[in-house]
# Entry
Amino acid sequence: MKAVMVMFDSLNRRLLPPYGCDWTHAPNFQRLADRTVVFDRCYGGSMPCMPARREMHTGRPNFLHRSWGPLEPFDDSVPQILGDSGVHTHLVTDHQHYWEDGGATYHQRYSSFEFFRGQEGDKWKGQVADPEIPETLTLRRGRLWRQDWVNRQHLTDPAVHPQNLTFDAGLEFLAANKDDDRWFVQIETFDPHEPFFSYAEHKQHYAGREAGYDGPHFDWPDYKRVTEDDSAVRHARNEYAALLTMCDTSLGRVLDAFDEHGLWDDTLLIVCTDHGFLLGEHGWWGKNVQPWFDENIHTPLFVWDPRSRATGRRSSLVQTIDIGPTLLDYFGLERTPDMLGVPLKDTVTDDAPVRAAGLFGSYGAHVNVTDGRYVYMRASVTPENRPLFEYTLMPTHMDSRFSVGELSGATLEPPLPFTKGVPVLRVPGFAVGAPYALGTRLYDLASDPDQETSLVDEEVELRMATLLVEGMRACDAPDEQYTRLGLPPRGPVTAAHLLLRAQRPQVESSDAPLPTAEEFGPDTSGVTTPLREIVSTPQGRDVLTRHLPMLAHPGLLAMVGAMSALQLAAMTPTLSRDKLRALAADLAAEVPGT
# Structure
């Protein structure tokens, strides 16, 4: 038995020809679809990057207990289980998050691995002098931004681009081991994740769509509302599409290897992603700060199983948590008791149902559920979005350790149902999103596939909220999550727990257009001053953290310090018109010079 998983990052299914896109150049994705089973209802689960990978290893959601973090000591890991059972597992990747503090336990679970440097802000090339950076529409500044421009200077030749080197290594593994048995290789590229860096050979397919764009450089949208004009949005979408075409070329090389080595006869092939990316849909860029709309959470999935040799479309609802159990089943191994995912063998063969509903979300944000038709997004019942705790024995964030201040509030808690008898640290948590400000939402994908109108339907909400609670209970969600969301940890969901009607004002407010600087009249200066200038004085820091408690987190302040409050409003719906006016007034009254 042999298995290959080709994994992309931030792959938007709606821009793939097999899922109906008619303007992107991606012939190898269509070629793949013609040879495999194509899933029409695949959803991610724990978001974003590393939480998604954690559940691919463990076969269970983790976003109700933990933000971005490593595999925990008590976690099951499918690659390690395979390796311990005599299956050689090999990872080839350019995904730099594996080598950060919050991802450092993943790659070691494989029998062997290779890593290729240079994606995004990977701490790759050392350069003291600032790189030359063109004028850009991107607001972000900081280490990642600067480092990426250092890295780009060393990627002028497509042959040395980390995506190409990753696929080179994957193909080398296939060629070297094609005649051996019991192996699994994961070929994983960071692309088409932003920044959308590609080459002329890929961009040429979209030259006719640029319509003479002559604006600033723009291939790395901030995670925020769209404030750019239509030509800039179209340009960024084309930049993404060009990188998608580069990914398609790499995928074609894998399909060629399957043809050349006869791997279709005896090798499982899975092609997947962790999540998508909003490219202006719903008036948003990116992910994390807005609800997990269809473009981000409804993901592409292609599977070839040589046992059934089945092809065609499948409508059963499947999720990321099913990938690990599918691999175990393929190699004749049982799921562990803590795994909630289901092997997809029978679904691949004849569309056998897997689940009635699927849970998804990111730590501290909306908790969402879909039955394949309706999507219910449950927000917190208070603006404070509390209580919220992290449960961990590996206290690291994406690229840093938990601070001493964070850990000062930690307590050692009894074992959770899935920690194998091991007690865990319970640490006060911090969420990036603002679910209360966005409101509880309900969408009918049958009548509203683009999720343009949130419904108020109490009968449907009661059914979906019940499915949500059932999913949370299956995941052993801690009691405070039910408190945060206003749901019962035990007993039935009733009409008293419904929120759609009560939170309709937040939905309408957060969906409304952003205010402009002109609307603030003489108070404009306070909301257009860079935040780092305001917090440079004690009075300014006090006013800002009073109105924007999130800025008390030093990591977040470092990320957004170059922005003004008005620019930050594009990134968080908590900054409404009224709140911006109140902030401007307090700054004018309490902070000299603003």
Summary: Residues 230-261 form the longest helix (32 residues). The two ends are 67 Å apart (CA to CA).
